[in-house]
Each structure stands twice: as structure tokens, then as C-alpha cells.
UniProtKB/TrEMBL annotation:
The active site is at K206. Its EC number is 1.1.1.3. InterPro entries: Asp/hSer_DH_NAD-bd (IPR005106), HDH (IPR016204), HDH_cat (IPR001342), HDH_CS (IPR019811), NAD(P)-bd_dom_sf (IPR036291). This is Homoserine dehydrogenase. GO terms for biological process: methionine biosynthetic process; threonine biosynthetic process. Keywords: Amino-acid biosynthesis, Methionine biosynthesis, NADP, Oxidoreductase, Threonine biosynthesis.
Length: 429
């Protein structure tokens, strides 16, 4: 703290979130904070880039690791991103030097959270990452603190703003995937490498963090099953809509007798379902457990302002008092085993979508292939505005196992009338 009793912060990373944070610190008098703070030093790659903020009077440091251990800071704020490299090195250095750390970086917390939390506990400093999951929605704090006496059984929801923006914009504007992703990047929702968003990895990082907080799971990212929206195209969105459904990228962490299962996948919901109503970069998280029942929180999951406000809330937490274990459960007690969610799961409805060439008998051979695998058809929708690629066709199955649906899709792919590898998506009951 300075002589004027101000908390001294050092910010590494002046991109979307870092710039938003500088603006909030400059505007702190209008906020309800428990004390005052001052930016002592900043770091980014380019010292000369115009970021639209006034950095005069603030020390510049090229190396984030040096910034992290500087004598003139109490809190190191890491807003660079990435699971390794300067983000990880600087956070480790700060914790070892006895500095509090605030970060929005889910990749580094998901992949190295256990060792970072251990360092924080050993050095009796805060490691806070509320902005890392669901942006402006304070779900980390709620699960860690407010729900610590709830025996949580399941945490699920929409955890990636970019994917939700892509899925809902493609539906409402009819645009294809690439221009909508470019727009999400321009709006500051996407990661600097947007592959992390569209592949489902970013949501998987967040789901893993929630598993540790909610279940005391020993983090193991290799156990998370991940698929993203990069394989979804406009015709999937259109045909599912015509059948009364919306596609959402959903993350889920469930605890049962065998351990904690965590997965991320695109799922179809009835248009009236609450998650189908979540549009744009909004996130929604439902926590279920006893004796609570369930609680759902929704709000802006990405973007400069919401994310910076979550970072600022964590800095304010440092002003409030001494450090507690970063995951709620002390690292030495993170005992719950994570298991890979393999296996068939219960019978459910599946959405199978392909394209068939416009030949007589094509539909008959498709239904025969499904019947051979014991998959019966509940609904079928064909789009006759076929174009040269063949007619898109979508099927809702009666409840069957994943194995049966995937075997049927594999048989359909072998048909000489099939011109597009069938896509198989789970339909939520
Ligand atoms: N954007 C969002 O909506 C959200 C982002 N987050 C997380 O917040 C973090 C920051 O995201 P965001 O602001 O969008 O990212 P940006 O890509 O916009 O900004 C990254 C910043 O890090 C700086 N940087 C990169 N490498 C180095 C380095 N070696 N040394 C010093 N600085 C470096 C860049 O410098 P320069 O500008 O000079 O290139 C840039 O200022 C990430 O972990 C992200 O996952 C979390 C929630 C929401
Ligand atoms: N790229 C992330 C940022 C918020 O974590 C998203 O789109 O959700």
C-alpha cells in the first residue's frame, strides 16, 4: 500500500480487458469500492500502440515477469492470456514474491490451477479469477463462497459467449459461420486465438474450473470431453430451427459415484427451453444440489466492460481482507477424482443431418440404414432448395443409444447417395 493507503496494482496485458480495467480504475470514485487503488505499472507487447487510454504517469515495464515482482505493486493483474508462456511465468513469479494475483485467464487456471493455488496458499496471498468463467457473471464467487454449504451434484450451462453469439447470429441473420466469427472478434468476445472458442476448449477450461470449485475435484484437463461449434454449419442451424429446436454449446460437470465427469458439446434444445432463449454473448449457468434445489445465473459472458468489472471486483476483494484458498477447498483436500465421460449414456433423441443426392430411392436407402441399426425415425425434414451439393436432410430419432445413432450415421455415410458426412448431435429431452 502507498502512504495514501492506496492498493498498488500492476497490469500486464492492455487488450480488450486490460483497457476496460484501466478505464474502471480511472473512474473508481463513481464505484462502491471498499478502498482506493492506483495503477503503478503496466506491461504489453507494444509500448507505442494507441489504446485510447491515458497511460501518462504510469511506469511501463516490457517484461511482465519483472512487473509481477516489482516492489511498487501489491496486486499483479494478469490479462495476457494463454495457458503457458508469460502468463504462467509471471503469475508464478508474483505468487512466489508474495504478491496477490488477479487474472481473467481460464486457460492457465484450468491447466495449472492446482500448482498456482498451492503457491498462493503457501505464500498466504490471494489468487482470484472470477472473470475467468462467464465474464461478468459472478459464478466463481457464488459457487466458492455463497454455495459452499450446498452439496452440488451438477453444474451446467452456456460458458462461451463467442459460440453463443455465432449460433444465435447465424440463425437470426442467416449469415454463414466465418463472417459471424469475424464480428465476434471485432466486438472483443473471442480469444486472441479464436480456435479456443469454436473448438469448445475455452468452455472446457471454464467447466474444469467449475468442477474444482463445485466438487473439490483434483483438476485433470485430459479427462474433459470436448467438441465445439466449428463443425456446425448454417444448414444444421436452419433445419434444427424448422424442427422447433435451437443449437447451443453446453458445458456440463456432474458428480456421481465414479467421480466427476466434465464435457462440452453442441446440444439441441426445444425453442421454448430457457437455454434456447440465451442469445448473443450471454452466458447462463445452472447449479443443482441439496438442500438448495437449483439456482441459475445469466448475464454478459464476454466483452470489455463486463469482464473488466469482474476483474475490478476481484481487486476489491483484496481490499476486503486476508486471502482464502483460491478454489475454496484447500489444494491438499482436492480429492475428488475426474473421470472421462466415455460410454453410451442413457437412451435419448438424436439429430442426424446429412445431404443426399437427388436420386429416386435415396430416402428409402437412408431409412433402411437406420433400421438396420435399430434406430427409428420420429421426425424428418428435407430442404428441397438443394443446390448442387445435394438435398440437406435432418432426422430426429426416437430415443436410442449414442452407439446406435453413431452406427446408423456411419452406415448412412457409406450410401452412394450420401454426399455429406452425417452430423450426430444430442437432443436434450
Ligand atoms: N475478451 C473477453 O471477453 C474476455 C477475456 N478473458 C481473458 O482475459 C485475458 C485477456 O483477454 P483480452 O483482453 O481479450 O486479450 P487481448 O488479446 O485483447 O489482449 C492481450 C494483451 O496481452 C498483451 N500481451 C501479449 N503477449 C504479451 C507479452 N509477452 N508480454 C506482455 N503483454 C503481452 C497484448 O499486448 P499488445 O496489445 O501490445 O499486443 C495485449 O495487450 C485472456 O486470458 C482472456 O481469456 C476473460 C473473459 C472475457
Ligand atoms: N472468448 C471468451 C471470452 C470470455 O471468457 C468467450 O467468448 O466466452
Amino acid at each position: 500500500m502507498t502512504e495514501q493507503n492506496k492498493l498498488r496494482i500492476g497490469i500486464a496485458g492492455l487488450g480488450n480487458v486490460g483497457v476496460g480495467l484501466v478505464k474502471l480504475v480511472n473512474d473508481q470514485e463513481s464505484l462502491r469500492l471498499p478502498g482506493e487503488m492506483v495503477i503503478s505499472a503496466v506491461s504489453a507487447r507494444s509500448k507505442t500502440r494507441d489504446r485510447g487510454i491515458d497511460l501518462s504517469g504510469i511506469r511501463w515495464e516490457d517484461d511482465p515477469v519483472k512487473l509481477a515482482i516489482s516492489d511498487d505493486i501489491d496486486v499483479y493483474v494478469e490479462l495476457i492470456g494463454g495457458s503457458d508462456g508469460p502468463a504462467r511465468l509471471s503469475i508464478e513469479a508474483a505468487l512466489k514474491a508474495g504478491k496477490h494475483v488477479v487474472t481473467a485467464n481460464k486457460a492457465v487456471v484450468a491447466e495449472h490451477g492446482e500448482e498456482l493455488a498451492r503457491l498462493a496458499e503457501e505464500n498466504n496471498v490471494h489468487l482470484l479469477f472470477d472473470a475467468a468463467v462467464a465474464g461478468g457473471v459472478p459464478i466463481v464467487r457464488v459457487i466458492r463462497d455463497s454455495l459452499s454449504s450446498v452439496n452440488i451434484s451438477r453444474v451446467s450451462g452456456i460458458l462461451n459467449g463467442t459460440c453463443n453469439y455465432i449460433l444465435s447470429e447465424m440463425l437470426t441473420t442467416g449469415q454463414e459461420y466465418s463472417p459471424v466469427l469475424a464480428e465476434a472478434q471485432k466486438l472483443g468476445y473471442a480469444e486472441s486465438d479464436p480456435y479456443l472458442d469454436v473448438s469448445g476448449m475455452d468452455a472446457a477450461h471454464k467447466a474444469l474450473i467449475l468442477s474444482v470449485l463445485a466438487f473439490g475435484a483434483k483438476p485433470d484437463f485430459s479427462k474433459v470431453l470436448v467438441s465445439g461449434v466449428d463443425q456446425i454449419d448454417g444448414v444444421d442451424i436452419l433445419l434444427s430451427q424448422k424442427m422447433g429446436y435451437r443449437i447451443r454449446l453446453v458445458a456440463e460437470a456432474v458428480k456421481n459415484d465414479s467421480g466427476v465427469r466434465c464435457n462440452v458439446a453442441p446440444v439441441l434444445y426445444k425453442a421454448e427451453h430457457p437455454l434456447a432463449q440465451i442469445t448473443g454473448p450471454t452466458n447462463a449457468v445452472m447449479v443443482e444440489g441439496e438442500p438448495l434445489g437449483s439456482v441459475t445465473m445469466a448475464g454478459p459472458g464476454a466483452g470489455e466492460g463486463p469482464t473488466a468489472s469482474a476483474v475490478m471486483g476481484d481487486i476489491a476483494r483484496v481490499l476486503q481482507g486476508p486471502a482464502t484458498p483460491p478454489f475454496g477447498t484447500p489444494v491438499a483436500k482436492l480429492n475428488e477424482r475426474m473421470v472421462r465421460a466415455v460410454g453410451d449414456g442413457p437412451e435419448t433423441t438424436w439429430f442426424i443431418r446429412t445431404r443426399l443426392s437427388d436420386k429416386s430411392g435415396a430416402l428409402a436407402s437412408l431409412s433402411k440404414a437406420l433400421a438396420v441399426c435399430d434406430v427409428s425415425i420420429d421426425q424428418m425434414h428435407q430442404d428441397s432448395s438443394a443446390g448442387q451439393l445435394g438435398a440437406p436432410i435432418a432426422i430426429m430419432t426416437h430415443p436410442c443409444t449414442r452407439k446406435a445413432a453413431e452406427s446408423a450415421a456411419a452406415m448412412v455415410e457409406e450410401l452412394d447417395t450420401c454426399v455429406d458426412k452425417p452430423r450426430v448431435l444430442r437432443v436434450e429431452a
